Backbone:
């Protein structure tokens, strides 16, 4: 029971962090049709900027300043780069964002170096929130849940209950009509792209000290974020939320499960025997293949449902 409850809480924390990062990418794609390869690099920038800013003014001001700076960087990327690449089609957009990955990574390495940063949890949040079956649940993880839930509620209210949200949703499906009504559609696109970068930067601020702030953090988070977006359905914020929680739980529980598929089938009377490749695969502990499970699930859902769980368009 202790392992189950602690893993549920940790899976929820990791899943909400994934949602905070993947939701920005989902908003950008649903609005602009751009699959931004550099999104995880903005997440990395958010962590590094938060580390630097927190050295001068503390963690909580950095929690606000760093995402804003990431949003400004995103706005500059959209105005002076992505908007021009858009005229040459989606291939040019993909190549542009793909090139940004290497540029941002080299800038980070030249500015902060190759070694991990000493980006720590702030002392005011470095204490056990509660004790469960003898295990401490850190207060910082509870703080991450609060920030993630507030972001989810704020995004929903913005899109569903405000005039700005109505304009964004209208520009998604009828950009020419929105332009005819006097709204600046390119400015709306810039706002959405910058907003997605703000969410990525916010995820970097609270995730950089939860994990490790180092030059490879974008490479480690980028693939799983794309798995979440594709599995949930391109353009679906609800699908992104469900997929984030599912992937967070799967990766968390896979680490603590010391059983193989053959062990799980044995109580059902399905014994696995023989010296074949299939037997070897089925007898491998789940903990050793946990990192592969999200990708297996993505391939599986693409085979049966190319739009993902709740996607509005084919992947």
Residues:
């Amino acid at each position: 029971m202790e392992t189950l409850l602690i893993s549920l809480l940790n899976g929820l924390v990791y899943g909400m962090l994934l949602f905070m990062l993947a939701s920005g990418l989902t908003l950008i794609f649903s609005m602009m049709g751009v699959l931004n390869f550099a999104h995880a690099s903005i997440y990395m920038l958010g962590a590094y900027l938060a580390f630097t800013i927190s050295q001068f003014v503390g963690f909580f001001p950095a929690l606000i300043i760093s995402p804003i700076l990431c949003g400004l960087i995103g706005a500059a990327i959209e105005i002076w780069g992505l908007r021009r690449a858009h005229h040459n089609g989606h291939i040019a957009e993909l190549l542009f964002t793909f090139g940004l990955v290497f540029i941002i990574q080299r800038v980070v390495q030249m500015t902060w170096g190759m070694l991990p940063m000493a980006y720590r949890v702030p002392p005011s949040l470095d204490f056990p929130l509660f004790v469960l079956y003898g295990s401490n649940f850190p207060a910082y993880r509870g703080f991450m849940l609060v920030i993630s839930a507030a972001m989810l509620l704020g995004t929903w209210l913005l899109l569903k209950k405000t005039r700005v949200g109505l304009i964004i949703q209208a520009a998604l499906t009828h950009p020419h009509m929105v332009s005819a009504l006097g709204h600046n559609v390119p400015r709306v696109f810039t706002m959405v792209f910058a907003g997605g970068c703000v969410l990525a930067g916010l995820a970097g601020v609270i995730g950089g000290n939860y994990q490790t702030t180092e030059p490879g953090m974008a490479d480690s988070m980028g693939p799983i974020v794309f798995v979440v977006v594709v599995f949930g359905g391109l353009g679906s914020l609800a699908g992104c939320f469900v997929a984030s929680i599912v992937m967070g739980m799967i990766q968390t529980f896979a680490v603590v499960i010391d059983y193989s598929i053959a062990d799980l089938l044995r109580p059902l009377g399905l014994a696995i025997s023989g010296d074949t490749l299939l037997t070897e695969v089925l007898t491998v502990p789940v903990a050793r293949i946990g990192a592969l499970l999200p990708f297996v699930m993505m391939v599986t859902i693409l085979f049966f449902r190319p739009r993902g769980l709740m996607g509005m368009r084919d992947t």
Remarks:
- Residues 67 and 201 are 4 Å apart (CA to CA).
